[in-house]
Amino acid sequence: MSKRVLYVLSVLILVTGIAQAKKSPQKQGMEIFQSKCQLCHVTHPVTPAERAKLLGPPIDEVMLRVKEKYPISENAVAFIVDYIFHPSIDKVLCPSIDTYGLMPSMAKKLSKKEAEAVAQMLFETFPVQKKRKNRKDDNVSVRGKSRDSSH
Ligand code: HEC
What we know:
Keywords: Heme, Iron, Metal-binding, Signal. It comes from Nitratifractor salsuginis (strain DSM 16511 / JCM 12458 / E9I37-1). By secondary structure, the chain is mainly alpha-helical. It is elongated and about 70 Å long. It has a single domain (about 25-130), classed as Cytochrome c-like domain (Cytochrome Bc1 Complex, Chain D, domain 2). It is built from eight helices and no strands. Heme C binds next to helix 4, helix 5 and helix 6.
């Protein structure tokens, strides 16, 4: 009988373990990003034609900027969480604001915890495409039009 209890217990522990592994903060962050942010921040490099239809800068470009200014994870996360709740012209890092206008506040769309999960995931995941040097004629470059024009 006690062996049976032990067996049931170990199966339970295993199953919860798997469930938790599935819901890692990274994965949770990605799910929130996909449902709340990706509409405006695409995750793939874009062509100029595609760019004209975007609602916001591709996330690779955003994260390049954020990491340039905040190379340390905690600072970047703090900046992102603050920005998505209180976007403001004074805080903007991306010159793309000229193209897209100010980002709307996400304060009513997600909790602080969710925001932190997204921000942490963003720091760990993006940019996917590293800055590509010596490829001036590359239109699909993650550096993008607005970034280049600022130099
Ligand atoms: C309705 C469109 C829209 C949604 C949804 C959206 N954003 Fe944005 N976001 C923008 C635009 C436009 C900009 C560029 C202008 C600016 O910086 O405010 C931007 C800029 C940013 C920036 C860079 C700020 C800077 O300093 O320039 C970050 C970081 C960011 N968004 C994160 C997020 C995250 C995380 C989410 C999801 C929780 C999200 N955004 C959802 C439109 C959006």
